[in-house]
Amino acid sequence: MTRRRRIYEGKAKVLFEGPEPGTLVQYFKDDATAFNNQKKGIITGKGVLNNRISEYLMSRLSEIGVPTHFVRRLNMREQLVREVEIIPIELVVRNTAAGSLSKRFGIPEGTPLPRSIIEYYYKSDELNNPMVTEEHITAFGWAAPQDLDDMVALSLRVNDYLSGLFLGIGLRLVDFKLEFGRLWENEEMRIVLADEISPDNCRLWDIKTNEKLDKDRFRQDLGKVEEAYQEVARRLGILPEGGPVDVKGPKTVQ
After folding, report:
1. pTM for this predicted structure
2. DSSP run (H or E) holding 204
3. C-alpha span between 240 and 53 (Å, rounded)
């Protein structure tokens, strides 16, 4: 089993030192959390499916010119990514009312929004990831105005592309979360899409039935969580033959 130095461990992934300078190995776990880590569980095979789904979506986005940190998938649970300086802001793109938006404004879940809405959240589990404004982001130096402009422009491109892609397989992209990082190449910096895109951070509903095929099934105790993730992978045409196959994680070296 490979021995690697662990760089960071989050709720759903572990980052290990990569094989080359400027790279990391991103390992997808089966751990599931909700409500700022108040609810925890295991979704069997989630890491395998999210690795494949994120690989597929990141690759498609790269093909249309969206810069990402993704390099290639290494195995069933790991992918090679470029090391980036993560910007501590989550951008949530909303197309349909759901989740906290419905609760905050009393809008019935499933109501189409007049246009896509982008919200900003400060990445801090300790503070419960508070919603912030552009003023907060620029005043506190989390991102420069130009960085924010680039992040918004990329988010809208991703939304346009993924909405069409999912529509083509009978899914509605209700909303989703994106993270970005600064990639330094020599003396030049550019903003790239980071983290992952999967049913963990997208709300995906069946167009005909409104059945939820994402982590809301775990949040709301709807059952058949593994089957929902598998259905998304199946519709994308990337479900491994015979279902998700597990692999052991690497041993860590401190």
Report:
1. 0.91
2. strand 202-206
3. 11
* Cα(167)–Cα(190) distance, integer angstroms: 30
Q: List residues bridging with 118 in a β-sheet.
A: 93
pLDDT surpasses 50 at 172 = yes
For residue 115, count other CB atoms closer than 10 A to its CB. Answer: 7
For residue 154, give every residue at least 6 positions away whose Cβ sits within 8 Å of its Cβ, in sequence order, or none.
66, 67, 178, 180, 191, 193
Name residue, tokens 């199946």: 234
The answer to whether the CB of 33 falls within 8 A of the CB of 11 is yes
Residues in the chain: 254
Q: Which domains does the chain have, with CATH numbers?
A: 3-83+225-253 (3.30.200.20), 85-206 (3.30.470.20)
- Tell me what pLDDT residue 186 has: 82
Distance CA 31, CA 27 (A): 12
pLDDT tens-digit series, residues 6-56 = 999 989 999 999 999 999 999 999 988 887 767 889 999 999 999 999 999
For residue 249, what pLDDT is reported? 46
3-state helix, strand, coil in the chain (%, to 5): 30, 35, 35
Q: Are strands 13-17 and 131-132 parallel, antiparallel or unpaired?
A: unpaired
The beta strands (E) that lie in 39-187 are given as 39-42, 70-73, 78-82, 85-96, 112-122, 131-132, 171-185
In the block, residue with structure tokens 């990391």? 24
What percentage of residues in the chain have a pLDDT greater than 70?
93
pLDDT tens-digit series, residues 85-108: 999 999 999 999 999 999 999 999
